[in-house]
């Protein structure tokens, strides 16, 4: 079921990295939305993956600012944006992870809908190399040339950078230049969506998650975007009845009217196995 508040609206996709290629088709098909990008919007001002401009805000705030900046420039009341983060997985150590946050802001109806995706499907990596063989091994590991690369003379505080490297001719030419000038090169994956098909696929999956929220309306005011906002731990242990770290309840709060709904035992079980209890299995 789709919600009529989004039907046939004009939507700004606040991106300069071709995210509209995967976001637009889904929203246009479902809602008849007329999506567009604005080439005057420079989202890099909020921070770059490659480090020229440091991101000072958390990902959600950055995504929200992209929407608001774009709406002001474009004169529309509906916008969508996403922001990605890359680094070690929060619970699976030594494995790189991709976290993407997406936000839809509808000023006309005072709606803000967010969705989040955490995935280990990423080629995020970087290393310093001195020899061509090491560079080629890295290229194979990170799916080059289908996925772009970035060269810097140093990882931090660099003075020279080349981005969007997507061919072996360019790779070889730039490698020779950097080795000649600096004796080494720091090579890293280009995580901008247009140079990273793996990230682009995750953005497409996240758009699908956002659409589910867009189609879920509040039981009280019927405004879309009603979803779980908090997961409370405390599911009791089956043996000692003490609270565990497992999910006990889901709390959903409507951001429009503040209606709240609590569902206990959302995973379909009222007790947790003692092996997951900090008291029974410390």
Question: What does it look like?
Answer:
With 282 residues, the chain is α+β, with helices and mostly antiparallel strands. The chain folds into 3 domains: 140 residues, Rossmann fold (3-Layer(aba) Sandwich); 65 residues; 48 residues, no CATH class. Helix content is 25%, strand content 26%. It is built from 5 helices and 12 strands. The strands form 3 sheets. Strands 2-1-3-4-5 form a 5-stranded mixed β-sheet, with helices on both faces. Strands 6-9-7-8 form a 4-stranded antiparallel β-sheet, with helices on one face. The longest helix is centred in the last third of the chain and has 18 residues. It is flat and about 65 Å long. It starts with 9 loop residues before the first strand and ends in an 18-residue tail after the last strand.
Ordered list of secondary-structure elements with their pairings:
Layout lengths: L9 E4 L6 H12 L2 E3 L22 H16 L3 E11 L7 E11 L4 E9 L6 E4 L2 H10 L7 E4 L8 E5 L2 H15 L2 E5 L7 H18 L13 E6 L13 E7 L6 E5 L18
Parallel strand pairs: 1-2, 1-3
Antiparallel strand pairs: 3-4, 4-5, 6-9, 7-8, 7-9, 10-11, 11-12
Helix pairs in contact: 1-5
